[in-house]
Description:
By secondary structure, the protein is an all-alpha fold. Helix content is 65%, strand content 0%. It contains 11 helices and no strands. The model is unreliable at 1-9 (pLDDT under 50).
Amino acid sequence: MGGCHPFKRCERCAWLLSEDEIKRRLEKMISRRRLIHCLGVQTTAVKLARLHGSDRQKASIAGLVHDCARDLSHDTLIEMVERFRIVADEIELGEPALLHAPVGAELARVEFGIDDEEILSAIRLHTTGDSGMSLLDKIIYLADYIEPGRSYAGAGKLRRLAMEDFGRALIVATNQTIAYVIRRGGLIHPRTVDARNFFITEMRGRAGELTSIFE
């Protein structure tokens, strides 16, 4: 998408800025380490989109931009919640790690000219997940968890599972996320529980039974 006009809607793009321009602006908003993570999520999201029949261009942009608000301070996130009139609950207001997702979706809209609701939803839900997630929502949620820069125990195994059994990988990733929050004594957001139930219900509908999911 390089070479697109930076201030006119490209005929090939569903958003206002070219990918090159988005990267240039993103570099000014997040750290180098965070940018490398975003590029890893972008690459992984495109791979999953190709494998599972989702829109690769949307997966690419959502993966690239998903953490645009991740390096903002808690105070700044709170200011942006008020500025964008985001409806945030008590758990989100107390956890910057959760609040950056809905704020990031609004920044994607105003800073990068992204008005595609599928992309914005994927950014908004990439941390907590939710019931009724779209395929693109799921791709960004999982890509964020398994991108090549992640180094937790079992990361390689989960990456392979994501390529072989996408639904089962979503459940394992959510289980591990919930277990991690419990070990830290943190609050589990209800949307994460809803996401887990949604993934399991989908798999029950697909396979009729659950075996070897819980690790």
